[in-house]
Specification:
Layout lengths: L2 H11 L5 H21 L5 E5 L9 H15 L4 E3 L5 H11 L4 E6 L13 E5 L2 H10 L1 E6 L4 H15 L8 E4 L1 H18 L12 E3 L3 H10 L20
Parallel strand pairs: 1-2, 1-5, 2-3, 3-4, 5-6, 6-7
Helix pairs in contact: 2-5, 3-4
Length: about 240
C-alpha cells in the first residue's frame, strides 16, 4: 500500500483527522478520480480559457469560435471550462467542425451551466481539481480576456512552468490590447524594480492577436496517442500535476 495512503489511514485511526476532514478529503479524491478517468479517454488537445461574461457577438467570442473551428479541422480536441461566452464559442467552433469538444464544468450558484456544444463533459465541485484537469488534458494553453478566474488559471500554469513543476508547453495570450498592460507591469515592477522575476520568465507566454499561431503550435507538437500524455514521461520528482 502506498505510504501516503497508509499515513492517511493511520491518521484516521488515531483520530488525528475528524470526520469532516475525512469526508472532505474523500470529496477531493472523488473530483480528481472522476476527472482523470474522463481525460484519459481522449488525446491531449488545446485548452482555451477566458471570460464567461463577454458578449457572444463580440470580437473575442468570434475569435474563440474561429480558433475552435480551425483546431478541430486540424484534428485537435478543444477543452474549455464548459461555460458560456469564450468557452461556449470555442466549443461551438470545434463542434461545428466535427471535432471533439470537451467541457469541464464547475458547480457555481450563478452563470455556469454546461454549454450545448460539448461532446464530452464532466462537472466538478472544486476549482483546484478542475484546474488540474484543464491543465493535464492539454498540450497548448490559450488565454482570452477574462476576469479573476482567467488570471488565476494563467498565473498557476505560469508558475508551474517557471518552477519546472510541469513541462513547458506553448502558452498564448490572445489580445494585445488586453494583455500588454499586464506584461508591462511584470516587466517594470516585478522584473526591473523588484527583481522578483527574470526576463526569460516573460518568454514562457506569447501575446498575439493571431489565432493561427495557436494552430501552428499544436500542429508542431502533433497528435500524441491517447496513451502518450506528455506528463507520462515527466519526472514525478519535479511534477506538481
Amino acid at each position: 500500500m502506498d505510504e501516503a495512503v497508509t499515513n492517511w489511514l493511520d491518521a484516521i485511526a488515531n483520530e488525528k483527522l475528524d470526520i469532516d476532514d475525512v469526508e472532505r478529503s474523500l470529496r477531493y479524491a472523488k473530483d480528481l478520480e472522476e476527472g482523470l478517468a474522463k481525460i484519459r479517454t481522449f488525446a491531449q488537445g488545446v485548452t482555451i480559457f477566458g471570460s464567461a461574461r463577454l458578449p457572444e457577438d463580440g470580437k473575442w467570442c468570434k475569435l474563440a469560435e474561429k480558433l475552435g473551428y480551425e483546431l478541430a479541422q486540424n484534428g485537435h480536441a478543444v477543452i474549455t471550462g464548459g461555460g458560456p461566452s469564450i468557452m461556449q464559442s470555442a466549443n461551438k467552433g470545434c463542434y461545428e467542425a466535427g471535432g471533439r469538444s470537451i467541457g469541464l464544468n464547475i458547480e457555481l450558484p450563478h452563470e455556469q451551466h454546461i454549454n450545448p456544444y460539448v461532446t464530452d463533459s464532466i462537472e466538478f465541485r472544486y476549482f483546484f481539481a478542475r484546474k488540474v484537469m484543464l491543465t493535464i488534458a492539454s498540450k497548448v494553453y490559450v488565454f482570452f480576456p477574462g476576469g479573476f478566474g482567467t488570471l488565476d488559471e494563467f498565473s498557476e500554469i505560469l508558475i508551474l512552468m517557471q518552477e519546472g513543476k510541469m513541462p513547458k508547453m506553448p502558452m498564448f495570450l490572445i489580445g494585445k490590447n488586453f494583455w500588454k498592460p499586464l506584461d508591462k507591469f511584470f516587466e517594470t515592477k516585478m522584473q526591473r524594480q523588484l527583481h522578483t522575476i527574470k526576463a526569460n520568465d516573460r518568454k514562457i507566454y506569447k501575446i498575439t492577436d493571431d489565432v493561427t499561431e495557436v494552430v501552428k503550435a499544436a500542429n508542431k507538437i502533433g497528435h500524441p496517442s491517447i496513451h502518450d500524455n506528455l506528463y507520462n514521461n515527466y519526472s514525478d520528482k519535479n511534477s506538481h500535476i
